[in-house]
Protein 1
Amino acid sequence: MVLLETFLTLAAYVLAMLAVGVAIEVGPRRFAAAVGDARRRLVGVAPYVLPLLVVLGMRRLALTVGPELSWYLQWNVSGLIYSLEGATIATIQSLATPAVTEYFVFVYLYGYVFLLVFPVLAYFALERSERLAELLAAYGLNYGLGLVCYVLFVSYGPRNVIPGLADSLLFTTHPTAQHLTAEVNLPTNVFPSLHTSLSVTVALFAWRTRREYPGWLVVAGLLAASVAVATMYLGIHWVTDVVGGFALAGVAYWGAVRAVERYGCWQTLPPWLADLPSRR
């Protein structure tokens, strides 16, 4: 029941922000026209949607079987990261105030989801499908490469390694948030920071589409920077995780752009896929 209430609160905030964003940056008429032409646009990005769905499915499966493999490999890098950083996160948290904490909690929970979903809608509204295809491919690369790292490395965040120095500000100020985070991640999966990598990826694409959506570049840049800081301020990630997230974002952005440049978008569905609904 608590999980449902938390999810509904998240959905309400994000939907409200999406409605405002689409109305201001995309425009209702433009978006409505895109919805009317949805089939062509969805067909165009289909080769990038399918791998993303596979990766997300594998990531969900890894939440149950991944830890066993991770501990079998015994590559626990938590101590190494702590030896490199020491009490850096505690120093960052020493600047905490109630107002700043509320801001970063909001950004981490609600702003992050908005940051990932809005460009999907905005690029869907563009006449050509390449930008949306690139974004979806980049999401797939982020999740896929992140999953590999999560399986290879056991890595606990500051709130687990140095609980006496770093507070879990997210859970102490909003205890119900742990019901959501437990559904999508594990305490051992912190390197690299996917919150950071995906947010920076969105910011990179916001720069790529700055002519189409100049206002979005400003919003995406501010939110991406805020998310990266929030992961450390709230005691969830190390600085090392955030740096790794920046690197992952660069790789995912570059790989996605090159993939779409090489393979392009579909003009029509291939026969094997177009015939699926009619098969019995």
Protein 2
Amino acid sequence: MKKTLLLAGAFVAALALPSGAAHAAGEYLKPPLQDWSFSGPFGTFDREQLQRGFLVFRQACSSCHGLEYVSFRNLAEPGGPEFSTGQVEAFAAEFRIPDGPDASGEMFERPGELSDRWISPFRNEREAAAANGGKAPPDLSVMAKARTFERGFPWFITDMFTQYNENGVDYIAAFLKGFEEPPADMELTPGNYYNPYYPGQIVAMPNVLFDGVISYTPEGANRPVAPETVEQYAKDVTAFLMWTAEPHLEQRKRIGFQVMLFLIVFAGLLYFTKKKIWGRLGEEGAPEFRA
């Protein structure tokens, strides 16, 4: 009885903990849950959002971060931003790709092609670290899957039933719009910035998103297709990074649903087959076995 009361008390205490408890302990603030089009077993990517996210990444992130595992052709493939092949070819040609050797044995640079991968803005990790205060910016290809946070009890139990799998994107979106002035009792060294969602709350990356810095207004249009705010920029580029981390998400979910449907039908057929066979044996009587 005493043990039961202790467990019940622990359960109530866990429910009563505020979502910012980690922040009070000086670790990090838990990101709030976001509404994503690709969440859930039937979620899909919003093509227009992926294209806006590409624009944000290109203008605000690509000067420091690369997408090592993304080929230019992926930007035109089904399931992603689905730019036209011509658009992607023009974008790829803006890059200078090291190649060679040529006929004389010399290395050279050529315009990017559809088959090339998105190259890093730096030649190597040491150059990246030297240009960024001693810390090389990470590649963002799979960052939406690499980053996560613990939701704690009892949410990890409910997540098994709701299929919540968006820890990484919730974190990235909160991080990108979470830059703020540090508390009065916190002193930052030059080159460091305060972000309550980052573990430790001190990060070397500066804020790169501000309202109105990236235009969402198509050429010839009178108004933007989406709000030009930090909130929207952060959500769009995060959705784009989710696609780079899992470009076949829609195909995986579609195949998973088809497999589950097949297994349900197959289980039904097995059940009725079993009833047909064993029901007939029951009517005829079980065979007798003699020693």
Protein 3
Amino acid sequence: MSYAHPEYLVDTEWVANHLNDANVRVIESDEDPLLYAIGHIPGAVQVDWFSTLQHPLRRDFVTKEQFEEVASTLGITNDTTVVFYGDKSNWFACYALWLFQYYGHTNVKIMNGGRTKWEQEKRPLVKEVPSYARTTYSAKEADKSIRAFRDDIFKQIETKRPMVDVRSPKEYSGELTHMPNYPQEGATRGGHIPGAVSIPWSQAVNEADATFKTTEELVALYEGKNIKPDGEIIAYCRIGERSSLTWFVLKYLLGYEKVKNYDGSWTEWGNLVDAPIEK
């Protein structure tokens, strides 16, 4: 059984064969922004999740106009095929793809396996930072059908619609407020949103090479926890990056039509006055 939308996923060989394609822009987005300088795919540009994609003042993304500036500076046109990859099994690559989709760029793909698989195959990495001719990119109005806000979470709780907590089991239980082996900061309360089921993001990928699991494995994983394609689903984590990966899996690999990513996630919910929490 193939993925529902295989056109949103490419392998390392496809990327290697399109390194000189003027209509393709490869973007590296990592948790660790220093990795790009150490070595990146030839021709790839860097989009840092924090300094590039976040608004400098508000807890929000860059505006539509700021996004247009980012895309134009990177030499991306409205017709460019944009391929994302990164570390951590493509957490922030999926986050960047999600934001590109939020502003209407639909011609996007994830390189399956990310940096891990590229390095395992001993494919070339370079330190040279490429430069591309500036374009005039025109973004669309934000597509809020793929993004959840806190009011959406209250409605989801009230109507008992499904939510997926993709964090680690100890974050879900409330024992931790951040990922294991990270400083425990950013939230005053631990636990999970009432009604959310625990399906850690890592269960959707193969540990050996960071590629996504098969359709059959993914169906068993999500439907086994009653996360089915006919529901209106919201995924969340701590800041929205791990849940972006789960959003990508549900929407494009399994074909779920109504999936939102709650990027406020636990840093918002765990600090929100009078918000219900379960442990």
Protein 4
Amino acid sequence: MAGSPSRVIPGFSLTLGYSLFYLSALVLIPLAALVLKTTEMSFAQFWAVTTDPIVLASYQLTFTASFLAALINGVFGLIVAWALVRYQFPGGRFFDALIDFPFALPTAVAGLTYASLYLKDGWIGGLGPRLVTGVNGLAGLLGLGAPLEPTALDWLTFPFTGGTTGIVLVLVFVGLPFVVRTVQPVLIEWDPEYETAARSLGAGRFTIFRRVIFPELFPAWISGFALAFARGIGEYGSVIFIASNIPGKSQIAPLQIVTKLDDFQYAAAAAIGVVLLSISLLILLAINGVEQYARRHERAA
């Protein structure tokens, strides 16, 4: 029809059909296969596998560490995005490009790097024992004996050894880009005149950020938080290198799935995966609900 806008992408039927096919092939069919795999078990077997104390402990560790890492990324990711957008400094473009590094770096490499740094025998984690050895060796050469006890500098030992803190550390690394990259476009499009107007009315810095800036950033911020949280739940490669992987204490849920697969317990692995998937979906739906509410409140305002 004359005067109608030209369409770069083909018509609705073709694009919708391709979208549904793409979504089904990559998401819906694999998820359905995961659920169907659990039908090989009775409900009693399913319940026994998914409520095993070791498996429950892995769920708790996975979701707790993922939430803490996403929360840390929510705070510091916002600060990093603010600094990259609002300030010009030497190396700014380099640091901006460096934010995407966790996307390109294999997670196993990240795990190996953090383990070599922060475990007890790592460069940073083993700083205390190495200093004791060096001081005592130097004192021995000078004929002064051993002035330090082997445990004298244990307080210098990095506390991120094998437990929840170490897992949170690597999850912060892999999840940081999600918060930064979702908040950055909003900050770029933000008009500073709103801040100037609020300042002219006598508002302080904290009030301006809390009442003027953050409400605009909140939908994007909560989206980045959700993405970082979801990435943490499914993270495996980087975590297994820094966690001590003690059953019931420092084993994450994905490791439980891999362990079941190694033992050829495919239905049991699928059962753990279904529970993990269900809890993740519920949490993400809740976060998305908060995001939608914030957007509606923003439009109404």
